[in-house]
Amino acid sequence: MIETKDKMKSKSESEKIALAAAKEAINEFVAKEKADKKKQIFQNTNLLLEHYLDLKAYCDHATYKGYLEDEEDSLTIDGFEITIKSIRANREVTLIIISHVDTALSLLKDKCKEKDMGEKYKVIEFLHLDENQQAIPWSERISLVSDDLCCGETTVRRWRNEMVKDLSVFLFGVDGLKLNL
Fold first, then answer.
1. Is 68 helix (H, G, I), strand (E, B) or coil?
2. Average pLDDT of the chain to the nearest whole number
3. What three-state secondary structure class fits 81?
4. What digits encode the pLDDT tens for the residues 17-47?
5. How far apart are CA 90 and CA 96, in angstroms?
6. What is the DSSP letter of 127?
7. What mean pLDDT comes out for the span 91-112?
8. Which of 90, 135, 158, 167 is 20 to 30 Å from the Cα of 69, by its Cα?
């Protein structure tokens, strides 16, 4: 009987150790998931900015309707209307996203004006929103904006990252914050 109590006692201690190890593994997994989500949000914001003008162009030029002539009568002026639903749906989703990005950019611009940080917003405008600058290689754009704002390239990169983080909040809400929930 004494052996059984010792086995039960040691089993209970080993179960406690296993349980503690399992809890720690779960906590590490959850922490990694949160960190990955924050990283993904930052990357998504970057992607939206990098492709902002391309997405706007897609919305302006996406063709999802067309007409086909009736093959039996080649003189038919009014043919069959063809609509490609996937292109129309993608355009509509892209329009909604672009509208949301425009709103977020407007909110960010207003916030920067209120806090007298207009030059930080100019970094985003120059690097991502100015159509005339898109043909210039990235490193040259960084150099040009640093010259224009009379600051170093490191400052331009830092301000851009700050603006991307702030924009993430306007785009993704509470998920854009670095909260430990």
1. strand
2. 83
3. strand
4. 878 878 888 888 887 877 777 788 889 999 9
5. 10
6. I
7. 95
8. 90
* Mean pLDDT for the stretch of residues 82-99: 87
CB contact at 8 A, 59 and 91:
yes
- Is residue 56 packed enough to be buried (19+ CB in 10 Å), middle (13-18) or exposed (0-12)? middle
Mean of the pLDDT values across residues 59-75? Answer: 66
| ∠ Cα 23 27 28 (to 5°) | 120
Task: Give the phi and the psi of residue 82 in degrees, each rounded to 5.
Answer: -115, 130
User: Cβ distance 153 to 123 under 8 Å?
Assistant: no
Query: How much is the CA Rg of the chain, to the nearest whole Å?
Result: 27
Q: pTM of the prediction?
A: 0.70
Give the C-alpha separation, 64 to 81, whole Å.
Answer: 10
In angstroms, the CA 149 to CA 145 distance is 6
* Residue 160 · residue 121 · CB < 8 Å: no
